């Protein structure tokens, strides 16, 4: 029976590297408007919860999952977009 030492540092580095590319791909600039920031932030939060789960850190996994879910549900209606001269509140798509 072999005993393996597990290093989570390298696995988390791969997660950060991959999510960096995915998050960058979701952010789109259309003129002066930027779209996809909420999606990119959700990807990062979900990746953090997944990395904690893979490292068997259950308390940070639950906290990260609760944070991501609550941020998406509570802040869904407060997407604010700046227009020329004033702020308008946009409904989610």
Characterise this structure.
It is a single chain. This protein is of the alpha+beta class and 93 residues long. The protein is 58% helix and 17% strand. Strand 3 and strand 4 form a beta hairpin. The mean pLDDT is 80.
Task: Explain the layout of strands and helices.
Layout (H helix, E strand, L loop, with lengths): L7 H19 L1 E3 L2 E3 L1 H18 L3 H17 L4 E5 L2 E5 L3
Antiparallel strand pairs: 1-2, 3-4
Helix pairs in contact: 1-2, 2-3
Based on DSSP secondary structure assignment, what is the total number of beta strands? 4
Computed CA radius of gyration, to the nearest angstrom:
18 Å
Proportion of helical residues: 55-70%
Q: Indicate the overall shape.
A: flat
- Report the structural category: alpha+beta
Number of domains: 1
SS element count, helices: 3
Largest sheet: 2 strands, antiparallel
Strand order of the largest sheet: 1-2
Overall pLDDT, averaged? 80
